[in-house]
Specification:
Elements (H helix, E strand, L loop, with lengths): L15 E5 L4 H12 L3 E6 L2 H14 L4 E6 L5 H10 L7 E4 L17 H22 L4 E6 L22 H26 L3 E6 L8 H8 L3 H13 L4 H4 L1 H8 L8 E6 L3 E6 L9 H15 L9
Parallel strand pairs: 1-2, 1-4, 2-3, 4-5, 5-6, 6-7
Antiparallel strand pairs: 7-8
Length: 308
């Protein structure tokens, strides 16, 4: 793993990958590098205009790339269902659950869930479940869910998953990233019990410069705070190309283990991909099962393919 970079990605010819939030930042870099190695890549994007621009940019950077756009709003379960139903493929080799929102003012999704929990966790939980039959049809398939070092900010409160009792934007973000890790853990357990040839793993980018950091303060019109965050992105953060490496490693490197968590090697912050520390509460099997049950009830998506 030491010194691993995009040149080390194995050949992806003949494989189909779905990357959410792929119109910019980490998702775009992930999609581009997979396409560069021969994968057919579906960009799942909320904005059709930004998605089309990303497809054009990627095609320019990777001549001959097989890339297509699908409209996907993870804050709307109807959109998640439409996106999953629109994919014409009998098998999908890789799903990268990358899209997310960070530290937004309190709001709710189209289905009434707190936005960060709804988009970062529930939307991806539903999408993975809906695509599960096509993932199981692909030998050696993977589901990689992008969490964050900020999961250390908070464990889930099963009595207040939607932060209705008290909302603190950064705590809510940390909890949604904890949910990503608990989801990965329980999915890995269920896949193992079913004897499925599908690996569920997680990754995080450390501190990578993307537009995610500025979205919250921009939504509130806090220009001074936005400029401060932009300065931090330029001076402290690593570029998106480096931040995407742990995601690409988890998605493509040989021998990636179920429920592994890959991140930057230097203090969870920057550097080459390496096994990442994680909070003890993300290894709580009881909490993972509880979140799974709640997620099935809230989304209406049941992983029936693992129950046969």
């Amino acid at each position: 793993m030491a010194g691993w970079n995009a040149h080390d990605i194995p050949d992806q010819s003949g494989r189909t990958a779905v990357v959410t939030g792929a119109n910019s930042g980490l998702g775009y870099v992930t999609a581009r590098e997979l396409a560069r190695k021969g994968a057919r890549v579906v960009l799942g994007c909320r904005s059709e205009a930004r998605g089309k621009a990303a497809v054009e940019q990627l095609a320019g950077e990777v001549p001959g790339a097989e890339v297509e756009l699908g409209r996907l709003d993870l804050g709307d379960l109807a959109s998640v269902r439409e996106f999953a139903a629109s994919l014409p493929y009998e098998r999908i080799d890789l799903l990268v659950n990358n899209a997310g929102v960070m530290a937004l003012p309190y709001g709710t999704t189209a289905d009434g869930f707190e936005t960060q929990f709804g988009v970062n966790h529930l939307g991806h939980f539903a999408l993975t479940g809906l695509l599960l039959p096509t993932l199981l049809a692909a030998p050696g398939a993977r589901v990689v869910t992008v969490s964050s070092m900020m999961h250390l900010l908070g464990n889930l409160d099963p009595r207040d998953l939607n932060s209705e009792l008290r909302y603190r934007r950064w705590i809510a973000y940390g909890r949604s990233k904890t949910a990503n890790l608990l989801f990965t853990r329980e999915l890995a357990h269920r896949l193992d019990a079913a004897g499925a040839d599908l690996v569920a793993a997680a990754a995080h980018p450390g501190y990578a410069a993307t537009n995610l950091q500025t979205a919250g303060v921009r939504a509130e019109g806090r220009r001074a705070a936005e400029r401060l965050v932009e300065l931090g992105n330029r001076v402290i953060a690593q570029p998106a190309e480096a931040g995407a490496l742990p995601i690409l490693y988890a998605a493509t490197a040989p021998g990636v283990r179920p429920d592994s968590f890959t991140g930057p090697s230097i203090a969870m912050w920057r550097g080459a991909p390496a096994p990442s520390p994680r909070a003890r509460w993300t290894r709580d099997d009881r909490a993972a099962r509880g979140l799974w049950g709640a997620s099935e009830r809230l989304t209406g998506v049941s992983y029936d393919a693992l129950k046969a």
